Input
Amino acid sequence: MFRIKNYATSALICAYSLSLSGSESQLKAESYGVASMQGHRPTMEDRHIAMPSIEDNEIFSFYGVYDGHGGTEASNFCAEHLHTNIIEELNKGGGLISDTFIKGFEKTDEAFIKKATDENIHSGSTAVVALMNKDLLMVANLGDSRAVLCRNGCAVPLSIDHKPKREDEEERIKAAGGYITRCDGAWRVGGILALSRAIGDTHLKRPVTLEDWVSGVPEIKKHLRSELDQFLILACDGVWDVMTDQAAVYTVKKALLEKQGDFTYAAEELRDEAFRRRSWDNISVVVINLKAHQTANEE
Output
């Protein structure tokens, strides 16, 4: 069974995170680092969550990055509800873990669409989340926030961006009765959204359209953990628009060497490097120390 500990939540300056407090601070420092900035955008629409333990024995961990667009309502909703819905589905037991991930995402999307319809909200959000124990790492994503694993110094992508011009995504959109067009330098669903999957965006989903042009169903990646796995990066496109996967891994590795394994510093360095490379978007980064999680799980 999966159970969520009752953590206090707090907003961090420039980070807008759901995180741990008090007694868990030492585990937090050893397990992960987070960093965000508004950057050149007029508002900060990113959110993230970090939960180094879910069960009382600290076997399971959950992390997520949510990149909002058109407002903060959808990214806020993801940060508050997506992990709860996923874990509720896992608690029911039976079936594949990937199926419970999908049900958790669908439940979140349906609930937000109802809220958005009732309150005339038009925002949406990407989502990239990771659930792990000492043996298994599961990643689920919607949109262009990305998960990248560092294994033995090399970048290993654990997600694929959902862009309208991706061949299989374009086919799905057209099969649903939708279309894509190039506008303002990017391919967009219905000429509006430069993503093909997201939470929210009611104007591109049922019942406004006959079928969902923008999907709320995530893609799932299952990764069996290895001693060669060093850390996992979850980040929004404010990083990936200006950095390759390997460049991000190199930046984190360099920072960890400079500050003797300080993962907060590593996350800040990745954020700042993206900004130095002239990222014009909000920038949010979670860097997870897989070695620390492996040690905690084995004790």
Residues 168 and 243 are 24 Å apart (CA to CA).
